[in-house]
């Protein structure tokens, strides 16, 4: 490993007689790519976070608990599942009335062996369709933060990769030019003077 000396900040913009136009272009490409990467990531992440938070908050406001009734006995029996396994649930058919007075049916998870006509609490949207329980405020905040972070990183990857590809092309072009110049001047250095 070669000794490079102390790190020089902003070396790409310092005056140097050996610096070529391609070096300055690469410096601006790197700076632009980093700025766009940071801005795209932050803006996309914040926008996605806000959108998810708003959607989940709307669900908490609009979705309602409704009392439904089992239309038939649920499969299984309570004796098959001791109290220690109270988390075990089976699918049961239920009926409920939407806010507009229309009757709806669907399937929800209920305790095994629940009798027909048993009351079951379900969640519905404003149209009376069956939905899951809405996320709490804490769950919504966590979910929106995670989605925002993923969207932000994904959005930031596009300009970052684009900048890396462009810098790679500039590097290959610079190396090609150096090879051409070396082929022209290299043999002159090998000649001996008498």
Automatic annotation (TrEMBL):
Q: Where are the transmembrane segments?
A: 146-167
**Any idea which UniProt keywords this protein has?**
Membrane, Transmembrane, Transmembrane helix
Protein name (database record) = Uncharacterized protein
What species does this protein belong to?
Streptomyces guryensis
What is the organism lineage in this UniProt record? Bacteria, Bacillati, Actinomycetota, Actinomycetes, Kitasatosporales
């Amino acid at each position: 490993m070669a000794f490079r000396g102390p790190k020089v900040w902003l070396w790409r913009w310092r005056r140097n007689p050996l610096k070529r136009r391609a070096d300055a272009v690469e410096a601006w490409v790197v700076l632009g790519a980093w700025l766009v990467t940071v801005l795209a990531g932050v803006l996309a992440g914040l926008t996605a976070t806000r959108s998810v938070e708003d959607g989940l908050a709307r669900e908490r406001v609009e979705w309602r608990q409704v009392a439904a009734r089992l239309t038939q006995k649920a499969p299984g029996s309570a004796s098959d599942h001791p109290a220690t396994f109270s988390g075990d649930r089976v699918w049961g058919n239920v009926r409920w009335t939407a806010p507009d007075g229309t009757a709806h049916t669907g399937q929800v998870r209920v305790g095994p062996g629940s009798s027909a006509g048993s009351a079951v609490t379900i969640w519905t949207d404003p149209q009376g369709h069956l939905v899951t329980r809405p996320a709490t405020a804490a769950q919504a905040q966590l979910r929106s933060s995670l989605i925002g972070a993923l969207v932000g990183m994904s959005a930031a990857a596009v300009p970052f990769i684009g900048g890396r590809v462009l810098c790679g092309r500039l590097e290959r072009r610079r190396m090609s030019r150096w090879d051409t110049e070396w082929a022209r001047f290299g043999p002159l250095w090998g000649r001996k003077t008498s």
